[in-house]
Amino acid sequence: MKLNKKKGAITVKPLAKFIDQTLLKPDATQAQVDTVLAEAKKYQFASVCINPYWVPRAAAALAGSGVNVCTVIGFPLGANTTFVKVAEANHALDEGAVEIDMVLNIGELCFGHDDQVKADIQAVVDATHAKGGLVKVIIEACLLSDEQKVRACELSEAAGADFVKTSTGFAQGGATVHDVVLMKQAVGTRLGVKAAGGIHTYAEAKALIDAGADRLGASAGVAILKEAAQ
């Protein structure tokens, strides 16, 4: 995805389509969710990423807006059983989600059980694709070595995922330029790369996009757009 430039900056409309406006706090209230949904319609973000409980409300609010409903599965640890992840995904898709951000099984990846990691991802991918959705696989890069990050990307691709994603935002680190470059090298143009966690400014957003990110997960989407427009 190329950026339209204006005086050296990403213009507001194209930049908005890189952003999944995100609200995943455990104490998020209905009022806060409604604010994020209204912002998403106003600024035309790519999606709103919310916890599964809020999917029906988001789907109703965003119907016909051009903004997708994204939710998280196996979040934030990735240690749910595959059965539970698939059930979560199916339920969210039935309630109006069209993008599923799932956490892979981090412990099994670290231990080298690649077949189990791939099977876990593929089960969610198959269920999601059957209902017309797309899957972003969260690899939680801050917990992995570079070799493990690359392997996570390769397993995600082999399982049929649409994106790989850096982080949940709930571990000790978020998106870095290094990780985005590494992940983009691993998947090329075959999968998208989503950077998430700790993205608060336009400069940070631009650096990650320049590094190869196709999407950004950010709770500061509105502030980023306003800064970009200055």
- Return the structural class: alpha/beta
Strand content: 15-25%
Q: What is the overall shape? A: globular
Radius of gyration: 16 Å
Biggest pleated-sheet summary: 8 strands, parallel, barrel
Would you identify the regions where 5 or more consecutive residues have pLDDT less than 50? 1-7
CATH architecture level-2 label: Alpha-Beta Barrel
Looking at CATH, the homologous superfamily is Aldolase class I
Share of helical residues: 40-55%
Active site: 101, 165, 194
Keywords: Cytoplasm, Lyase, Schiff base
EC number: 4.1.2.4
Pathway: Carbohydrate degradation; 2-deoxy-D-ribose 1-phosphate degradation; D-glyceraldehyde 3-phosphate and acetaldehyde from 2-deoxy-alpha-D-ribose 1-phosphate: step 2/2
Summary keywords:
230 residues, alpha/beta, TIM Barrel, eight-stranded parallel β-barrel, 10 strands, 46% helix
Written description of the protein model:
It is an enzyme of class 4 (lyase). Catalyzes a reversible aldol reaction between acetaldehyde and D-glyceraldehyde 3-phosphate to generate 2-deoxy-D-ribose 5-phosphate. This protein has helices at residues 12-16, 30-43, 55-62, 82-94, 106-111, 114-130, 146-158, 177-187, 202-211, 221-229, and strands at 5-6, 9-10, 19-23, 47-50, 68-73, 99-103, 134-138, 163-165, 192-196, 215-218. It is an alpha/beta fold. The chain has one domain (5-229): TIM Barrel (Alpha-Beta Barrel), CATH 3.20.20.
